[in-house]
Amino acid sequence: MVNLYDTGVYLLNGKDIIRADQYASTLIKQKTGKEVTKEEARKGTISYAILNSHNTSNNENTLQLKFDTLTSHDITYVGIIQTARASGLEEFPVPYVLTNCHNSLCAVGGTINEDDHMFALSAAQKYGGIYVPTNIAVIHSYNREMMSKCGRMILGSDSHTRYGALGTMGVGEGGGELAKQLLKKTYDVAAPEVIGIYLTGKPQAGVGPQDVALSIIGKVYASGYVKNKVMEFIGDGVAHLPIEYRNGIDVMTTETTCWSSIWCTDEKVKEYYSIHGRPEDYATLEPGAIAYYDGLVYVDLAAVKPTIAMPFHPSNIYTIEELKANPLDIMHKVQTEAREQFDNPNLTFDLTSKVRNGEIYVDQGIVAGCSGGTYDNVVAAANILEGQSIGNGAFTMSVYPGSQPAYIELVKNGTIAMLMDAGVIVREAFCGPCFGAGDTPANQEFSIRHTTRNFPNREGSKPNEGQISYVALMDSRSIAATARNGGRLTAATDMDIAYHTPVYSFSKSVYDKRVYNGVGRAEPETNLQFGPNIKDWPAIPGLTENLLLKVVSYITDPVTTTDELIPSGETSSFRSNPLLLAEFTLSRKDPSYVKKAKEVQHYERQRTAQSSELLAAELKDVYAKIKTINGCEMLDPFEVGIGSTIFANKPGDGSAREQAASCQRVLGAWANLAKEYATKRYRSNLINWGMIPFLVTNETVFAKDSFIFIPHLRQAIAAGAAEIKAYVIGDDQITEFVLSVGNLTSDEKDIILAGCLINYYK
Fold first, then answer.
1. Does pTM surpass 0.85?
2. What stretch of H or E contains 189?
3. Which domain covers residue 227, as residue numbers?
4. For residue 172, what are the β-bridge partners?
5. Most buried residue, 60, 107, 419, 583, by CB count within 10 Å?
6. Both 669 and 753 in a single domain?
């Protein structure tokens, strides 16, 4: 079904795969009559051509990219604009789309969500941007319909910024990277490796894009096969997939931890652009006659079966057939892993109760957002539910079309009526179910969702308050099949359905009537509209020569998500207020974090105030021990910066939200300690907020509440030192160990030294 090559490969004429072994050059010459080096063949990928056309450096290995357009939603755009504004923003240099699809309910926190929306409208007017009002479209639906273009690159402050199926390379990053683009700076990254995703065959009826996506995620995630790389979709199977099917696979590539994605284009893509009134934005994209890929994922679409990602990660996959054949053992395994992950002895897990008489029963079905809410997915669900009923028991189902134009067409062709007649609730364009702000299940309920993620408490529950519900990811087709059976888990392939997708007609008029487009028409005299919750970033200190860190949280989970670092859900309403939002940092993972971080931050304030209280109590013995280290005998404690830090094995999986880093920073954090970072974007977020992304090989030398002293740190960062000497200050001894930060660009070094991106540009 899905197989990984253990070597790089050459692709000839888009179809012949040759392993990059000792026979490769001979085979290539036999088939093409040409000799080619690996370096030359790398230029044959679609990715190379697009990246090269956006690179402003003179070095193909060290890219300095400028993007064609930018996009953000109402959880992220206030902080980005505030950052850029504090750094000298005068006008948006490229089209910047501000959508309102996350905090759009305006049901939490009084006026603060709508205040943010009015801030965004005034910013679009002042700086010349695009403002998409609430519930008109989810961020990625709008960008697919209006901003994609073959060969274009789009940078978004949302991790699911993926438009590769439309020939557009999308990159999801933290807000700092968008602020750089707004200030006409570049996005600096080492040239990424490119992994070929070779699709062959045709999916069977009832198998949808989520099934294919989950099958790929399950195969590549744990090994990091595509981590921080480009996934390039090629092969004869592409032609068999409708465009929305491709979009549904493409947006889920984020869950593999890849950096971006791109697909070869064809007549179906050309038709998509024509339907959307932009035929001039189409171009044929395909690999060269000889293209080299750093690895290959071979996907036989015909062999893909309806698939489910069990709690609590998109990579925790089984075929529905496997799950139904062995439900109790698999449910028990999920519960056992969850107990270890949540580490809360008072939390009850009762997923096995969903198995009754050998069948699995779920409580809720959701089809929503950029992955589930596409036109084709909603139509397929209606095909299955036409003339049926989801029942009047505990099971419920909601569908959220991704945009108003799609919604209008679904109303016109009767799809919405079919769904509503079956008992489905049809809602507006809204990303809420993807991050815990809509259709939160009841305690102990089991929800199946065609959305993007099923991380712990991503659906809105609060495990630290004794609440837990379970989310599994599935395709809309199997969700509808399950709904048709009143909640009994059912694969769509178990039903004989005559699928029929009415021809789609795009109506741009709703965008013309409601979307504000100020591109090229900035109005500098416009005043930004601030609500009482919109606050400026607090002052951030620059890096001191010597640093004293206290480990205030120690997380041993294999992976720590951004949802655990800063929860989503109702906390999202406070994202325009850095200090207020920071109160929620790690609240569902380590409730003691905020209190402990503030205690350390108080020490730093005493230090900067030159208060004698700093030299008393807990720190008195720490300073005494530091002075016993060779070369530190005359060290002045008031010259040693003091900050908190956390340890996590692999932090940063998931969302691009910069607040996962900035919330730690405004509470006085100065670094993270990790074995590795789950994504480039989280590491970049740390750097842009002046936090040092330390890597450790021996985490056992320190523990929670340990003090770590790092002498001459500023000098080491500036010099790009490969190893940085540090000391754990224990009660009985001082333990020396080594930290590293990996490769830092010149700008990254300067940002860390300055204390954060805002300081750097000031």
1. yes
2. strand 187-190
3. 2-64+191-303
4. 156
5. 419
6. yes
